[in-house]
Amino acid sequence: MTNLKWTGFAKKSPQERIDLIREFGLLKEESQEILQQQKKLPLETANQMAENVVSELSLPFAIAPDFLVNGKTYHLPMVTEEPSVVAAASFAAKMIKRSGGFTTTVHNRQMIGQVALFEVPNVDEATASILEKKAFLLSLANQAHPSIVKRGGGTRNLWLEPKEDFLIVYVSVDTQEAMGANMVNTMMEALVPSLEELSQGQSLMAILSNYATESLVSADCQVNISSLSRNKEEAHHLAQKLVMASRLAQVDSYRASTHNKGIFNGIDALVMATGNDWRAIEAGAHAYASRDGQYRGLSHWSYDEEAATIKGHMTLPMPIATRGGSIGLNPTVQVAHDLLGNPNAKELASLIASLGLAQNFAALKALTSTGIQAGHMKLQAKSLALLAGAKDKEVGPLVQELLKEKHMNLETSKALLQKLRQEN
Length: 424
Ligand code: HMG
Description:
By secondary structure, this protein is α+β, with helices and mostly antiparallel strands.
């Protein structure tokens, strides 16, 4: 999947893009058919996924091409309703690819479940009794979901923490390719009678935690500063500003929230395209962003002046799944997995983190140079030019003319195009 010619992909119609994907051989026959026939989630299936269903809501399904991650090229499916997100991701992917692409590290892939005990008469004694039975409890939880053990997963560790008047029991579980919410919940509930007996207390609840600190992934990349500007001095100045923007998100939670929103423009889009639970990913990552007590930006950018590169790094929890839940029920979700080459959960987590970092780079670059609105206006002008019927060579000049207008609309675009054609 390398060296395919994606330039101009943005200017094509959806049908032309589908044809190109077919030409590139990126999808299996079955997925091509789903795209070609625009097969949607059947209403009967939707009715099994949620309650009181009366219809479905469609969202744009786009592709951000040419992400080089760990030496392999991917074309990332993105589901988003927001203009400029896919353009920004594509733009960043191109720049980062030129400087070697992304490298990722999957630190671990386990989910954590918890049982919160209260009215425990003696916390120290309860802790000792529970820890003494650790092996028994881990095996008891496994018996509640034996199929995961057969697949090579299952419980891995159990530990306790007293917090105010609670004694909390945590259990880590290797959920293999699943996100594992149901699995972990079943396991935690199975532990309740034994934990109540051992602690002499009561269980308030037994549930999976979305704060997936045992499921961390890191993405790294670098960008040669010549990509920021052809002028060396300006490139140096822009690199410094980009790093300051990264620092600002560390010291100011108001900025950190927007900074991370930009990261989630990318993350959510790929999480949704692959049929995953985006609320779980968001909740875990925002908790991680506040892990030292202050909400901070998830990414960090530094400037290596000698190498003339800026370096991006981001670590966050990414308990993503490739099996289970609604994955496999929605035909377009199957297309997304196929387009990615049916990655396993670790590979998918790496792609999602890389996309988040790319999205962040594009946003920070825009914010610290032209400002965010310039890109938005340019995109709007481009789509108005195409809608007015501008051909390849006409798009650039028409966009320039449109950007001079106070109010851009299709009528102005058509009139300006006519004027341009008369002048030539
Ligand atoms: P540009 O330099 O004008 O782009 O940037 P270009 O016209 O020179 O095109 C360069 C490449 O960008 C293209 O290459 C495409 O890959 C891509 P080509 O295909 O031509 O060889 N590209 C597009 N891809 C698809 N459709 C398009 C398109 N246009 C360019 N129409 C760009 C324009 C929008 C990329 C740039 O201004 C940008 O990255 N802006 C940031 C936009 C952004 O972050 N949007 C998210 C919404 S704002 C927000 O919610 C987050 C925020 O608040 C987060 C934060 O504060 O940190 C900002």
